[in-house]
Amino acid sequence: MRWLVSLIVAVVSAVSVAAQPPADAPRVDGPDGIVQRVSAAERAKQIVDERANAESRYQIGQMERVLEGAVEHGATITRDRLKSVLPPGDTLMNGENARARGFRLEGYGVFFDVIVPPFETETTLSWSIRTLDQNALGLDSALKVLESHVKSQGNTDLDQALRRVELQVNPAMLAAQSAPVVQGAGNATGSAAAANVDVPAPPADPILNDPNEAYRTEVVAALKDAMLAHSSSLGIGEQDWLTIAARANEDRPRLAPADSDSRTRVIRLRGADLLAYLARQIPKEEALRRIEITVY
Question: N or C: which end of the chain has fewer CB within 10 A?
Answer without folding.
Answer: N
